[in-house]
Amino acid sequence: MKSKITVFVVVLLISLISLSTIFPGYSQAEELSGRGVNLLISGEQEVFSNETNTYEITVDGEFGRNAQNWTLYSRVIEGMASVSPESEESNTSNIFEVEMTAMRKGKVVIEFEAFCSDEDETRRKVETFEVNVLEPSKVIVNVKNPTDTTIENLEVGLFINSELKRIRYIDRLGPNEERRVQFNWSDEDLEPGEHRLEVWVDYGFDESEEFHKDALILEKNIYIPDEGSHILYTSLIILLILGVIGAFLFYLNKKKKRRRPW
Q1: Given Cys at both, which of 26, 141, 156, 161 links 168, Cβ 3.0 to 4.6 Å?
Q2: Which domain holds residue 99?
Q3: Three-state SS for 259?
Q4: pLDDT band at 249 (very low <50, low <70, confident <90, very high)
């Protein structure tokens, strides 16, 4: 009996050694340390469906910054979205750019997995990034160059209640040339009531880095209904309709009782 147990233990040890030899990458990946490695992720956390957004991922930390090779894997682990590229390797830069396009409203979670190595060691770090996807309302404007010279690096800004919400860029616009620009925006963060929507153009005449309001090309008021009032109003209409139907049925029943027999 003892000899059988000894044989079983020996066979088990040989099997484990064989598995670690066949799959060395798997066991190594599980043991890789993330010490001295951070992932810095920058980009919009509130986006619109069917709109492509760019995220910058920096492999940071004392070891991460000073590594000689970096690899980044990107994947969507929750929600309907796609990322590109899904994997990228570099031996010159620890900064990567990943594009994400969400297909529908809801939450999207992206997982970023980075490997960085020097001559002696490889380390691994994983971070997740959550994005809220909204269904957009659209604003379309025509931007015109009112001068007889070419203007470069125009900025078109969408303002709601005097607050700059989004910027669209036009690299180059010739004399008297027009360009169509579309903004996506959402009213989810707006309180019930009336709000002011404006679109301004910064032609770049002022060289300051801040957005400068050179020309107002669209202005309109938008009204956000109060959901509570809307529910109350709908309920009153339903009650009114039910009351009319009830009164009509009562009238028919009463008329039937008054009918004389033949």
Answers
A1: 156
A2: 32-134
A3: coil
A4: confident
